[in-house]
Amino acid sequence: MVHPPDWKLFGNHTHFATMRGFGMQDGRIVRYKEDLDTYTRTYALGDVVWPFHNVLNAQNLEEVVDELRRRDLFMFDVWGYVPGSGEGDWEQFTVSPQVAELLCTHLGDRWLGMDNGEQDGRYIGGYASQVFPVSADRKQRYFHFQRYFERLADDLGNRLATLVSLNYGHYFLKEGIYTLIGAETAQALPNSQVYYSFIRGAGKQYGVPWFGNASVYNRWSNKSYNRTGDTVGPTKGTSLSLMKRLLYSHILYNSMVVGFEAEWLYDAKIGHGNALTPIGRIQQSAVRWTNEHGMPGVLYTPVAIMLDFFAGWTFPRHLYTGEVYRVWGSLPYRAGDFLTDEILRTLYPGH
Predict the structure, then answer these.
(1) Which residues of 12-38 are buried (b: 16+ CB within 10 A; e: fewer)?
(2) Counting beta carbons within 10 angstroms of the beta carbon of residue 242, is it exposed (0 to 12), middle (13 to 18) or buried (19 or more)?
(3) How big is the CA angle at 15 (ends 30 and 67), to the nearest 5 degrees?
(4) Beta partners for 214?
(5) In angstroms, what CA-CA distances link 120 with 98, 123, 145, 306?
(6) Which of 67, 186, 305, 351 has the most other CB atoms within 10 Å of its CB?
């Protein structure tokens, strides 16, 4: 059983995630002290480090983990696992018991787990229609889902954070192995308000705090201050205005950890040194704002919508499939599912 972090561990204020990876060379993590200085001290962008999974195989992982501990930093949501993928940036792998033990013993509660990242969407869009035996029974569809994610959790050591891409977080959190739940907003993913109504509902039901992440991607392109192309560049992706609004919304949703997805710093190779990009300046300002004003307090939510546990309901249209009005990936909506949709449309017009 994993004990989720509480506000006391986080000093009773909102923290910020930054630094999505370490430099690697010849199987070792390199320049990690300098990089940690840049992100967490020089520019004070946050203290929750969010690295790529290649660090797990680094020869000097233990010394890097000990450096995080000395600096009172958190290690969070180590990402890059995708079931069914071969070798490459995104791949299926297994966290060794030795690495899992190292992270737990050296970081303690500041080890916030591996990433179950966007996998509910991938399951619904790519796997649910292939399960056998085929069944129209929603309970059986849930058991298919459950078995799939038991395997994922076993691969990753059963200490996880989840970055959902649909609204299936309740099914994850009930397992008692999650530290946090959150989502990337903007992108081509659900409306942030409805998204976080499900995330907060799951968190409150199972006693797991939530985090917020605003993405540089929208449906068509991604924002970057270090690369340019047809679908990437400073004028592509999510607008700065929306990114800022989402970041502060996540703070006001009472997220324990918030932050942007990437692009805080200019690449030194393009002539700016390691100066802050506009994205970095927004996050740095938000860090100062929360330090000055503190956490907003418990979000007042006197109304709840309750669904049957086995309903498997999700949004009528979403990124992961061209099929519309489906539950558990392929079952057509029934009367109660349409009712759920209409209730949400009433509460969140135009979502």
Answers:
(1) eebbbbbbbbbeeeeeebeebeebbeb
(2) middle
(3) 30
(4) 185, 260
(5) 28, 5, 9, 20
(6) 186
DSSP state of 52: B
Indicate left, alpha or beta for 264 from its phi (over 0: left) and psi (-120 to 50: alpha).
alpha
Amino acid at 210: W
Rg (CA), the chain: 20
Query: Which positions ≥6 away from 150 have C-beta within 8 Å?
Result: none
Contacts of 26 (CB under 8 A, 6+ apart): none
Q: pLDDT (tens digit, 9 = 90+) per residue, 251-289?
A: 999 999 999 999 999 987 665 667 999 999 999 999 999
**d(C-alpha 173, C-alpha 328), whole Å:** 18
What element of type H or E holds 213? Answer: strand 210-218
Distance CA 296, CA 254 (A): 7
CB 35 within 8 A of CB 23: yes
Residues β-bridged to residue 164: 183
3-state SS string for 124-193: HHHHHHHCCCCCCCHHHHHHHHHHHHHHHHHHCCCCEEEEECCCCHHHHHCCCCEEEEEEEEEECCCCHH
The per-residue pLDDT for range 92-112, each reduced to its tens digit, is: 999 999 999 999 999 999 999
pTM for this one? 0.96
Selection from 84, 64, 86 nearest residue 75 by Cα: 64
For residue 187, give every residue at least 6 positions away whose Cβ sits within 8 Å of its Cβ, in sequence order, or none.
215, 217, 218, 219, 238, 319
Cα–Cα distance list, 133 to 77, 97, 129, 301 (Å): 33, 33, 11, 41
